[in-house]
Every structure is written in C-alpha cells, then in structure tokens.
Amino acid sequence: MTPQDPFAKKREQMVERQIRARGVRDLRVLDVMRRVPRHWFVPPGEEDLAYEDRPVPIGYGQTMSQPYIVARMTELLNLQGDEKVLEIGTGSGYQAAILGLLAREVHTVERIPELAQQARKRLARLGLENVHVHIGDGTLGWPEHAPYDAILVTAAAPEVPQRLLEQLADGGRLVIPIGDRLYQYLERWTRRGQTFHRERFEPVAFVPLIGEHGWEAPWM
Ligand code: SAM
Which amino acids bring their CB within 6 angstroms of ligand 1? Predict the structure, then answer.
C-alpha cells in the first residue's frame, strides 16, 4: 500500500468491514486482500465499484466475485505457501492474483478467451510469474500439471466434476459452489486416499460452470 494509491483507504475499509467483520481470520488472506489493487481487475472506468460489497460485472455476462466471497473461499483452502493450486474460472484474474501471492504455483482455467487474455495482462502487471492462465473447459481440470494441493472452482456446478476430484492430491482441498443455476452452498472436499470428506458452508450465488461436466451453455 502506498500513500499515492487513491484506493488504499477503501481497500483497508473493505478488509475491515466486509471481510474481518464477517469472521475471516486467516492473517495471510487478510494481508493479501489489503495489498492487491482490486481496481486493476475491473473494466476501465468502473474502478469505483471495485471495493463495494458485491460482485462486479466484467463483461461477457460474467462477474468478479464479492470481496468477502474471495476471502472466504481462499481461507477454506487453508494455503500455507508451498502448494500447487488449480483455479477454474479465471474471470478478471483477481482471485488468481490472491492465490498467486499465497501459494507456490497457480494454474487457472477460463473458457472465454477474451477474459483469459485480459487476466494475463493484469497478472503480468502485478509481476505474478507463478500464475499461469489457460483457455479451455475447466470441468475437465488441467491434467498436465496434476495433482493439485488445492482446487478452487469459482463458478456454480450441479455436482463436483469427477475429473477435478481425480486431480486432487492426497490431503488436498477442493472448494466449490454446489447447487442449482441460481443458488448454491460452498462445499469443501478433502481427499484422504481414495475417499473424500465433504463439508458444507454458507449459501452463495455464482454464475454457472459451463462445460462437459457442468451446466450446458444457455444457447445450446
Ligand atoms: N475468479 C474470478 C475472478 O476473480 O474474477 C471470478 C469468476 S466468475 C464468478 C466465473 C468464471 O468462470 C467466468 O469467467 C466464466 O467464464 C468461467 N467459467 C464458467 N465455466 C467454465 C469452465 N467450464 N471452464 C473455465 N471457466 C469457466
């Protein structure tokens, strides 16, 4: 945070009022959410929306998730710093930036090429060379770099895609919104050998995960 940053105060308020006040306690998560310039990840001219307590439209019918939801999902992954992480749904690239500062290596997959390109530029501007943006159907995971210590899905699925469970390392955590197209619950799946421990957390509302092991595209 620099004195020249016109959004530094808004970012501090975001962390205190929207994130810490709602119970997120992981100090590393709070620290990176204070540091990453969220306004770099919204469309030009929309910077004032970046620190509001809601998702921000980023074009192509997609959104950058609400700050609290980014923090909460990241906290549920329980990252210590040495993990290889897979994110499905790059969107703006903001969540990938947060993960990139908390883990060793991040692979993030986006199905809309234009969003992936924009995210690449923003991540490069931040100097995050450990975050790799791939274009494709993330319901298939990204087998090339599997297994992953943590997988984060930032779009809503009807059920956990089997391919993602297969690409989770032993002891790894997968966090995903599961439900119907409009409303879901956050779930965390932890791998123990060939079995998975499933936990359910708060209700959320994400855009759909569209692909072979997700929802069908609306125009299909
Ligand atoms: N994590 C993002 C951020 O920080 O801005 C927000 C993600 S937005 C809520 C969901 C994203 O998932 C959209 O960009 C959408 O295009 C993408 N998506 C949906 N289905 C997908 C799939 N099968 N593979 C990859 N990306 C997908």
Answer: 62-65, 88-89, 91-92, 94-95, 109-112, 115, 137-139, 154-155, 206-207, 209-211, 214
> What is the reported pTM?
0.97
Q: Measured from the CA of 95, which atom of ligand 1 is nearest?
A: 4
d(CA 79, CA 67): 18
* Separation CA 117–CA 113 (nearest Å): 6
Amino acid at 79: L
- Give per-residue pLDDT as tens, 57-107: 999 999 999 999 999 999 999 999 999 999 999 999 999 999 999 999 999
Q: Is 65 a known active-site residue? A: yes
Nearest CA to ligand 1 atom 14: 91
Instruction: Fold for 8-204, please state it.
Output: Rossmann fold (3.40.50)
Q: What does the domain layout of the chain look like in residue ranges?
A: 8-204
First to last CA, the chain: 45
Closest CA to 154 of 82, 78, 96, 79: 96
- Under 8 Å CB-to-CB from 143, ≥6 apart: which residues? 163, 167
The DSSP code for 210 is B
